[in-house]
Amino acid sequence: MTKARLLRLSVVLVSVFMILLIIVYWDNVGTAHFYLHTSFSRPRSPGAIVAGEDWEALPDVDEFLAKLLSSSLKQNISIPRKTEQLFVQGSNKPVVSNLEENVRGYDWSTHKDRSSLDQEKLQVERQRTLREFCANSSFTFPTKERSFDDIPNYELNHLIVDDRHGVIYCYVPKVACTNWKRVMIVLSESLLDQGVPYRNPLDIPREHVHNTSTHLTFNKFWRRYGKFSRHLMKIKLKKYTKFLFVRDPFVRLISAFRSKFELENEDFYRRFAIPMLKLYSNHTNLPTSVSEAFGAGLKVSFSDFIQYLLDPRTEKMAPFNEHWRQVYRLCHPCQIDYDFIGKLETLDEDAAYLLQLLKVDRLLRFPPSYRNRTASSWEDNWFAKIPLAWRQQLYKLYEADFVLFGYPKPENLLKD
Question: d(Cα 272, Cα 311) in Å, to the nearest integer?
Fold first, then answer.
């Protein structure tokens, strides 16, 4: 009799423990907060380097948790989505209050005539190029051989997660990242306007877009999930759709220079312009405010900026600022197997195609692009006064971004 009671008590205790375990993990993986996983499949080459590719080698507890996540995704397919029911087409006019956006302006054309690109083939080619060079042992660059587990916590802060739709976006500054962050806020409903989630990306103020507290990033997993962080990252990297947008590296540098040093930016003036003017233009007793400096005609030149990038002291002081840090250091493309690689040069077509693949094109449209986007044709003029040796050093500094993402080597800038 006593043995029977002990047996029944054991069964009850085990059941309670399992229920608690499921509840705790259910909350951790975020399945209570998203409704449909929209990851799309594509063929992978045998040599592809994939974060979380050791899925089957995970411990038993991780396998259990992975199955739990998969089953919950299937169950949630039938749940009606509140966001879709609240579909609102993008506004006809943008909310523009930032000087930079006023200077650039918006292009409100529909670009319907651009739909002829074979996006599927384009993605296959971009991913093939990336995988081949990641697997090519003769092509090397810093951090290439690291595993995902070797990437420090602070280097994962550009990976934004949307658990509602199963999406991970690695943002690259100066590559339409402001508007892609706005899209992620709308999808994840992570920001409210008078108690209601934003539905039109352009309604979201710029200062809120770049507020780090607005987004769930991999960097935040550490304090939220503790020892489960890496396991959860791998699960989401395996299950979610991962995308990034890139740009010609030299053109991105020009855009960063124009944005941060040709417009009055107090923070960048104090952190970067003052040291550059002192080191490379021999200025002393500089004004403490950017408005005073601009009024006195004291501005960083493009030559100063290039010297700063090439100066070995720069990286010793601190890593490159995110606006000119290489994409391979921001998004780790050889450690994370991205499902979609967009380019600023084909932003309108790529954005429309991606939103279709994510099955969210009924919820929103990507904000219109800037009319006077920095063009590749400007490179010759911008680099005309930069010494050839500097240009060659600069190419070596950004070579990995050129090669991995299929941008042609700018031979005209690297020869006499």
Answer: 13
Averaged pLDDT, 212-239: 90
What's the N-to-C CA distance of the chain in angstroms? 96
- Look at 11-15, 99-103, 275-279 and tell me which has the smallest mean pLDDT: 99-103
Q: Scan for tokens 């009671």, then name that residue.
A: 5
Residues 336, 341, 344, 349, CA torsion sign: negative
Mean pLDDT across the chain, nearest whole number? 80
Which amino acid appears at position 125 of this protein? E
Q: Which residues contact 270 (CB under 8 A, 6 or more apart)?
A: 288, 290
* Residue 174 phi, psi dihedral angles, 5° rounding: 75, 20
β pairing state of 192-193 and 167-170: unpaired
pLDDT for 119 equals 93
pLDDT for the residue 191:
92
- List CB contacts of 36: < 8 A, sequence separation 6 or more: 73, 76, 77, 81, 165, 166, 359
Name the band, by pLDDT with cuts 50, 70 and 90, for residue 20. low
DSSP string, 157-193: TTEEEETTTTEEEE--TTSSHHHHHHHHHHHHT-SEE
Distance between CA 330 and CA 353 in Å, rounded? 24
CA atoms within 13 A of residue 260's CA, in its CB half-sphere: 22
Only one residue has tokens 């990034």, namely 244
